[in-house]
Structure formats: structure tokens, C-alpha cells
């Protein structure tokens, strides 16, 4: 009997998943060893990746056989992430958007897959969205505690899914959509390989962050400018009339937290954050 696609994905990526969870980056996050500068860059990275995943998945609307890959509205996090970035950076966050080398490589892979083998986007949809949904609440609380971010959710809206009442129920629904795709055996195997590649790309993203110290991030050095393409492609929609309260705005000027030499640890993409149990 053929294993369901999502069950096969979970089994085939078990080792890669564990490697991502056990990076130094991830262990630091779980221990609340977070600098504000790393947190800001992490959200910039998430934005680069989410825009790419979202755009490539939306193009599948012209391919009915792959419609099951289209991301449900409940999973759309771009607007929430834009609000977080505006809160953390201020109004000019789009012009300051940074994509470190490993993130740029991840984006290139997403664009290539979307153009040449769109069915393989199933691997990225699975790892991205299931990871975000699984780990979001845990990571939100860790970030709020370590960085003193407001309990109202400002600065951590990306981690919340207000339109999903039961994360377990919704994950089951989304898995069933992926399992319903009509795929050849060869394509299934390619999706499994691509999912492992997605985990490895996320590990490399974490390693990039780990190499960057908070002082380098504050000075803007050691982070190559790779965000130009993303800045040009993003849709500049209004975020509403709500203004950042003066008491909240102080977060953009907060000095690095005295937690030693720390690195932030998905959320996918992930997201690494993103790699809590799928």
C-alpha cells in the first residue's frame, strides 16, 4: 500500500528535521538567548522567503492539477510580517531589507522550482507552512520574554494565526489537500528529495545568522545587500492607520540585550522556528 504523501514526507525528512532542530542557532532560541538585531534580521529573512513562496504558489492557479498546493488564506502571513517589520524597524523597513547569502540562495531555489518544476513546491509548502503553524506560539512567547516585546502581539504577529481555531485540525486539513494531489511515483520521490533540500537550505540560513554578531548587524556590515529584488517585487499595500505607540516604539532603539555572544534560532522558514514538530 502506498504511503500518503505527508506521511512519506515526515518519514523521509526525519533526519534532516532533527539536524535543523539541533543547530546552535535553534538551541540558542529555545534557551531565550536572542539579540534584538538577530530577531530583526530573522524577520527580514522570513519576509524574503514568504514573498517568494507565496508568489510561486499563486502561479499554480493556472494548473488545476496542482490546486491543492495553493496556500489557504488562513496561512497568509505576509501582511502580519509587514506589520512586525514596520514596528521593529520603522517606516523605512522596505528600503533596509537585507537577504544574507544563504537566504538569497533559498530564494533562487524557490524561483527555479516554481518556474521549472512547480509540482515540487509541495515540498516547500509542507515545510514552510506546517513548521510556522507548529512552532509559532512557542516562539512568540520565547521572543516576548527575551526581548520584552509587548504582550499585545506587536512585533510578533507573524507567529499568530487568528483565523485558525485549532492548529491540529487545520494541519490535518492541509495535509489532506497535499495527500489528494495526483502525482506519479517519480514526482513523489522528487518531492521527498526537495523537502530534504528545503531543510538543508534552512540549516544554511541559520548558520548564516549564527556567524553574524549583533554589533555587525547594528552597523550593517557582514550582511551583503541581497534584498533589492525582493524590495522591487513586494506589493506595497497599506498597513492601516494604526500608529506605533511611543511606549512601543522604543523597541527600535533598544540596545542589544546582554546575553553574551548569541544568535537567534526558524520559523518557516523556516521557519526554523519553523521546524518544530510538523
From TrEMBL:
One Pfam family in the UniProt entry: Heme_oxygenase
Chief location: endoplasmic reticulum
Chain ranges passing through the membrane: 256-276
EC class (word): oxidoreductase
Keyword Nucleotide-binding attached: no
Cellular location(s): Endoplasmic reticulum
Cellular component terms per the entry's GO annotation: endoplasmic reticulum
GO molecular function, one term: metal ion binding
Documented EC number(s): 1.14.14.18
GO biological process, one term: response to oxidative stress
Keyword Transmembrane helix set for record: yes
Keywords tagged on the record: Endoplasmic reticulum, Heme, Iron, Membrane, Metal-binding, Oxidoreductase, Transmembrane, Transmembrane helix
Family stated for the protein in its record: Belongs to the heme oxygenase family.
Protein name: heme oxygenase (biliverdin-producing)
Amino acid at each position: 500500500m502506498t504511503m500518503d504523501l505527508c506521511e512519506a514526507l515526515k518519514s523521509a525528512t526525519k533526519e534532516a528535521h532533527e539536524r535543523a532542530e539541533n543547530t546552535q542557532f535553534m538551541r540558542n532560541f529555545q534557551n531565550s538567548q536572542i539579540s534584538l538585531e538577530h530577531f530583526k534580521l530573522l524577520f527580514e529573512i522570513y519576509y524574503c522567503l514568504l514573498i517568494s513562496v507565496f508568489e510561486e504558489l499563486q502561479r499554480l492557479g493556472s494548473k488545476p492539477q496542482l490546486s491543492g498546493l495553493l496556500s489557504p488564506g488562513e496561512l497568509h502571513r505576509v501582511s502580519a510580517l509587514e506589520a512586525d517589520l514596520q514596528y521593529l524597524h520603522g517606516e523605512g523597513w522596505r528600503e533596509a531589507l537585507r537577504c544574507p547569502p544563504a537566504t538569497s540562495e533559498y530564494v533562487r531555489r524557490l524561483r527555479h522550482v516554481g518556474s521549472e518544476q512547480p509540482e515540487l513546491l509541495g515540498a516547500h509548502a509542507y515545510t514552510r507552512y506546517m513548521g510556522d503553524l507548529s512552532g509559532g506560539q512557542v516562539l512568540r512567547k520565547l521572543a516576548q520574554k527575551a526581548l520584552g516585546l509587548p504582550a499585545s502581539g506587536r512585533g510578533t504577529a507573524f507567529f499568530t494565526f487568528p483565523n485558525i481555531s485549532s492548529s491540529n485540525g487545520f494541519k490535518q486539513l492541509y495535509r489532506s489537500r497535499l495527500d489528494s494531489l495526483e502525482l506519479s511515483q517519480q514526482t513523489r520521490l522528487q518531492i521527498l528529495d526537495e523537502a530534504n533540500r528545503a531543510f538543508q537550505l534552512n540549516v544554511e540560513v541559520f548558520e548564516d545568522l549564527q556567524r553574524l554578531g549583533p554589533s555587525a548587524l547594528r552597523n550593517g556590515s557582514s550582511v551583503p545587500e541581497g534584498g533589492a529584488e525582493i524590495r522591487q517585487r513586494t506589493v506595497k499595500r497599506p498597513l492601516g492607520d494604526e500608529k506605533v505607540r511611543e511606549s512601543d516604539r522604543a523597541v527600535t532603539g533598544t540596545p542589544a540585550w546582554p546575553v553574551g555572544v548569541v544568535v537567534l534560532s526558524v520559523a518557516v522558514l523556516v521557519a526554523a522556528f519553523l521546524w518544530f514538530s510538523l
